[in-house]
């Protein structure tokens, strides 16, 4: 493939964006805005180096945006894991490594900030060896013998001199021979193990040529047997030219799934630009794509387009054709969606899409004004297109508009966009818990008479009910067992309607009433004054009266949680669950992670992601789904009822 795509990965503030910008400025890339702020969504930069089109994908470092990272991992040839050498290793590095391993994405490690006063880069390299279960071998090393730090290339065993984008080598001070020889042998040995012919040669002669070492590294990288380690400073540029040069030397080939088409691309990012409108970023995995054609998607859509673009520096450039391996950008092509495989030819299926992480935090959105209300659905739809890890829906029971994401920050940043890009203002709250009401005791012979005499025709109806509690989850049952002619049967549907209406709002706190059976067994009617309406009203009030006598209680939803935590946090997490009325169902251990299966009342875990982050230092995550309803304990029930009373009296 002609075009190459590299994903820059790693924790927040490790220097990913700075590194990309440094490479661009060293190799004459155009940069329009260099802003120092955290990255929250994928951004693609383009630059040509030694006649090869390169695309760098900058990713967010915060765990809240891990959904974005998955798209970058899916379509890149190589990942650069950027690590801050001035701080202890963050768990995120392990997450990235695991994701890369799972997706078979070759990784190199760039240990950054080695010019900083606080750097501990040699220690960082050792710590990485402990954290990641993969062979890691430095290809370059630093020495402090004569200030400032200088770098020695272990492939050629020479000191590195960087002059802008040019790389020169020179001999290193002889007193370093011992240490450098040890590091060199380590690199040669690992490279030799990549290929049988190299092993033989190495065993015979004890050495490999430079080209053989580079080929060995490339083979190791492709098989994910090893991560080469670079060191440098994105800020000052130290080690950056060397880094780029070596990436060119051992650029790995990644295998993507093959489709039986002449040309196709994979759409990995949708972005709504305030000026250019909808932009769709895709990597061409086979063939090339020209301007002014028709594009078809794996979702069965098709659309004409005129212009196409490629990322150039940090902006876009209009072109006539984009080649294999490159990143193509479509503007305002509505049919395109992130995750689509696209082609000029008809296609029946596409490449697999990454599974988005489970949402762990949900808020209810309340548009501030009528105008906000009108704009919100359109805007949210666009935000969700830009970020497929968001889930937006209306709750069936509470009718609230809910937004779910990975954490507080994920939703906060989304709402910031909603406000700034789309001018929609919303208030947020935790979602309303969909409590329900039910009864505990059967009641016999509840009688209600509805009678009204106002001038002309009056109203008359009388109904007799028995009511019974039903098993949890059974809902509602209505039976009619009338005998004799007290109530003409044609009033039965009106009675059932009245009962159903009464069940919509329970008598305790106005929540829907469930799991009751109503038996309509008798009543009275009047030849002239009875009507459907009169019977409906009588049934409505009779049921309310019956509920009062039937020991009404509140029910609350329980969720089932699968919580994944590092072994050392298991005790704390279980202790916390107990304090939230949760119950642990079982524990399963896998490597250093324990899966805790538990149930807890929904009301107690609305902000569980924050708690879990605190308890596990950001390492834990969980899946949750609705489980069942259970009776609310009396002391909590009292509070909910009191709250509903104040709310309804406030209007
Ligand atoms: N001393 C020093 N500081 C650096 C270096 N590289 C980056 N920084 C600083 O580290 C901070 C974070 O840099 P960014 O490039 O924004 O980090 P990032 O990895 O893109 O962070 P996110 O986008 O939040 O994930 C900035 O203040 C940079 O100036 C370096 O080589 N040395
Ligand atoms: Mg960044």
UniProtKB/TrEMBL annotation:
Domain Translation elongation factor EFG/EF2 intervals: 432-551
NCBIfam families on file: PRK12740.1-5 (NF009381)
Higher taxonomy: Bacteria, Pseudomonadati, Thermodesulfobacteriota, Thermodesulfobacteria, Thermodesulfobacteriales
CDD domains per record: EFG_III, EFG_mtEFG1_IV, EFG_mtEFG_C
GO molecular function, one term: GTPase activity
Task of the protein: Catalyzes the GTP-dependent ribosomal translocation step during translation elongation. During this step, the ribosome changes from the pre-translocational (PRE) to the post-translocational (POST) state as the newly formed A-site-bound peptidyl-tRNA and P-site-bound deacylated tRNA move to the P and E sites, respectively. Catalyzes the coordinated movement of the two tRNA molecules, the mRNA and conformational changes in the ribosome.
Keywords: Elongation factor, GTP-binding, Nucleotide-binding, Protein biosynthesis
One biological process term in Gene Ontology: ribosome disassembly
Native organism: Caldimicrobium thiodismutans
Superkingdom: Bacteria
Residue span(s) of domain Elongation factor EFG: 553-640
One Pfam family it belongs to: GTP_EFTU
Name of this chain's protein: Elongation factor G
């Amino acid at each position: 493939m002609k075009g190459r795509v590299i994903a820059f990965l790693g924790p927040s503030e490790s220097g990913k964006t700075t590194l990309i910008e440094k490479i661009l400025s060293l190799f004459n890339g155009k940069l329009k805005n260099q802003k120092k702020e955290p990255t929250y969504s994928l951004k693609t930069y383009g630059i040509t180096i030694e006649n090869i089109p390169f695309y760098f994908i900058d990713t967010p470092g915060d765990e809240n945006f891990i959904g974005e990272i998955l798209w970058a991992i899916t379509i890149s040839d190589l990942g650069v894991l950027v690590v801050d050498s001035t701080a202890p290793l963050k768990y995120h590095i392990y997450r990235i490594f695991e994701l890369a391993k799972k997706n078979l994405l070759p990784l190199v490690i760039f240990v950054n900030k080695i010019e900083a006063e606080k750097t501990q880069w040699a220690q960082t390299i050792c710590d990485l060896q402990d954290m990641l279960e993969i062979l890691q071998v430095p290809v370059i090393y630093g020495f402090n013998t004569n200030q400032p730090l200088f770098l020695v290339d272990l492939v050629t065993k020479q000191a590195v001199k960087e002059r802008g984008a040019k790389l020169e080598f020179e001999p290193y001070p002889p007193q370093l021979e011992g240490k450098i020889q040890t590091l060199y042998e380590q690199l040669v040995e690992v490279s030799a193990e990549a290929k049988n012919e190299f092993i033989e040669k190495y065993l015979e002669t004890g050495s490999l040529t430079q080209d053989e070492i580079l080929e060995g590294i490339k083979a190791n990288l492709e098989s994910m047997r090893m991560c080469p380690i670079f060191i440098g400073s994105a800020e000052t540029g130290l080690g950056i030219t060397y880094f780029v040069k070596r990436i060119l030397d051992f650029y790995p080939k990644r295998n993507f799934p093959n489709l039986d088409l002449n040309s196709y691309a994979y759409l990995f990012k949708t972005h709504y630009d305030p000026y250019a409108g909808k932009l769709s970023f895709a990597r061409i995995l086979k063939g090339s794509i020209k301007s002014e054609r028709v594009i078809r998607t794996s979702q069965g859509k098709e659309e004409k387009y005129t212009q196409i673009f490629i990322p150039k520096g940090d902006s876009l450039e209009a072109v006539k054709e984009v080649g294999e391996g490159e990143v193509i950008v479509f503007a305002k092509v509505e049919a395109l969606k992130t995750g689509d495989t696209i082609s000029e030819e008809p296609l029946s299926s596409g490449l697999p899409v990454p599974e988005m992480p489970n949402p762990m935090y949900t808020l209810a959105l309340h548009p501030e004004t009528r105008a906000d209300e009108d704009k919100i659905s359109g805007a949210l739809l666009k935000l969700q297109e830009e970020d497929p890890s968001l889930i937006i829906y209306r709750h069936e029971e509470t009718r609230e508009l809910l937004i779910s994401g990975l954490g507080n920050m994920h939703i906060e940043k989304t709402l910031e966009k909603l406000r700034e890009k789309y001018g929609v203002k919303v208030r947020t709250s935790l979602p309303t818990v969909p409590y329900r009401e039910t009864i505990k005791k059967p009641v016999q012979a509840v009688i209600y008479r509805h009678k009204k005499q106002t001038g002309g025709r009056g109203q008359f109806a009388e109904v007799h009910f028995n009511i019974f509690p039903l098993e949890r989850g059974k809902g509602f049952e209505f039976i009619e067992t009338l005998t004799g002619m007290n109530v003409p049967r044609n009033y039965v549907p009106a009675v059932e309607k009245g009962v159903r209406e009464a069940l919509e709002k329970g008598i305790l706190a106005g929540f829907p009433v469930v799991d009751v059976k109503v038996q309509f067994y008798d009543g009275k009617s009047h030849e002239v004054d009875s009507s459907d309406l009169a019977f409906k009203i009588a049934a409505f009030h009779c049921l309310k009266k019956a509920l009062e006598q039937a020991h009404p209680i509140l029910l609350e939803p329980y969720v089932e949680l699968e919580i994944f935590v590092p072994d050392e946090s298991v005790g704390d997490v279980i202790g916390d669950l107990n304090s939230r009325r949760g119950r642990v169902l079982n524990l399963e251990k896998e490597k250093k992670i324990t899966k805790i299966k538990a149930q807890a009342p929904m009301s107690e875990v609305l902000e569980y992601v924050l708690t879990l982050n605190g308890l596990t230092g950001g390492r834990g995550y969980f899946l949750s789904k609705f489980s069942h309803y259970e009776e609310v304990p009396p002391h909590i029930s009292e509070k909910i009822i009191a709250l509903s009373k104040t709310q309804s009296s406030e209007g």
